[in-house]
Design a protein that fits this description.
5% strand
Length: 83
Amino acid sequence: MAHPVLREDWSDYDNKKKKKEDRLFFSCEESWEVSYLLEKLKKHYPTKTEAQIRSAIEACCKTVHSPRPREKFVTCVTGRLDF
């Protein structure tokens, strides 16, 4: 089952993507995308520090190769945060 963060409204993210076909993929190279995901995850992991969340994102940037499907990438990050 998908993590609750994936069931949230991502329309701000989708609308900001330059190419609409890219909206289902996560780009680690775009700082605004990392910040967007960081803010979403803070709501679901209030006991985790920003550094811990950022570390999980960075780790998944190295293990989930581009193009990174959003669902697969977020699942990687939440899996690391759930430990």
